[in-house]
Amino acid sequence: MYNRITLGMGWRAMTLALSAWVLAMAATPAAAQPAYASAAVPVGDVTLRVESSVSEKDMLDVGLVIFDAGIPIDEASHSMLGIFPEIRKAEAKFMPVLLRQVLLQSNAWGVVRVLPDEQNSTELMVTGKIRESNGTSLVLEVEAWDATGRQWLDKTYSDTTTDRDYPGTEGSDPFIDMYRKIANDLLAFRQGLNARELGVIREVALLRYAASLSEDAFGSYLQRSPEGIYSVVRLPAENDPMLVRVERIRDQEHLFIDTVDEQYVTLYEDMAATYNLWRQYGREQALYQQDYEERAQTKERIGRRGTFVAMEQTYNTYKQIKIQEQDLDEMATGFNNEVAPTVMEASGRVFRLSGGLDAQYNEWRTILREIFALETGLPPAS
Predict the structure, then answer these.
(1) Which residue in 15, 52, 215, 242 is a FRET match for 70, CA 20 to 30 A apart?
(2) Amino acid 347: pLDDT
(3) 16-30, 189-203, 218-232: least confidently modelled range
(4) 158 lies in some domain
């Protein structure tokens, strides 16, 4: 089926995945857990700042690039760090969608899209890297730049959960405060820019995209400083037919991105409930491991029959079985890495894109650049 991107691993693969993850978490000593929080911004309880009214000309479009999963190359370290690669890869797609929703709730931005990879011509581009992710804590490195090359954000955020974060209410996330904090920081920077500065960002974004189609035609409109900051040297004439073509090609590129973006949202919706349950179980495992280590120091390795410790052990065993047996199908839908072909139309022709999302996106951009070159007679940008 075209235009349908789903995430699932299959019954046997997911069973092995969960078992391996549980064993890894239980076997990981507390000292081996990564300690990124010391350099991170603890977010605490955060209220999202919402714009009551903002002019459309002051809104910027935002591109949220799929996060770097932060998986070490050394496979031997995965177990020690409590990382299961396939699940972490799915989280890298899940988290930008949640940030997208929070940004839209702030009523402060234009179109907010989740992107398969970086687009330097995006008015505001946000990237992230997962440093730590489990049911207890989340640590993200987040950076943001506008199209002029100005950096808005370069921070490491950390958040920890409490009992009241689980189970989350419908539509919430145990780490929602972190996403609100990121959104608030981006909004605070934008509010420090005046209308002219915001207008320049939009102009540069369009001209950088135009130059990516034809450097010969549009490269002279911009200059770049030694620090990597772009500025406008001159603007095309109003209603310049060449620029009209550029905007049409860009709209067709955005059409593909919007198609992909819808699938990321579907992934998020399919995955959220079970993913939160999985993280809740991970937090319970971590608390149990901490309690076990404390009891081990006092030689109380096994809870006495009928005690709270014994009941907790029984409950955790039961919860593990329930996740594997009752929620496996839903989780399989959420963690599938297969990508279906996408069908797109441009200039009266139909194109069938295949491969991974990055490959499809690059293929579509190549097609659009070839169409632009044919229509204008200009050499395509290298």
Answers:
(1) 15
(2) 67
(3) 16-30
(4) yes
Its pTM stands at 0.78
Residue 329 within a domain: no
Residue 152's Cα: distance from chain center in Å? 17
d(CA 73, CA 52): 46
Q: Each residue of 267-312: pLDDT tens digit? A: 777 777 777 777 877 777 777 767 766 666 665 555 555 555 555 6
For residue 74, the enclosing domain spans 7-277+339-376
Q: Is 225 a member of any domain?
A: yes
- Does residue 36 sit within a domain? yes
pLDDT by residue (tens digit) across 196-216? 999 999 999 999 999 988 888
CA 341 from centroid of its chain's CA atoms = 22
Tell me the C-alpha distance between 92 and 280, whole Å: 18
Q: How many domains is the chain partitioned into structurally?
A: 1
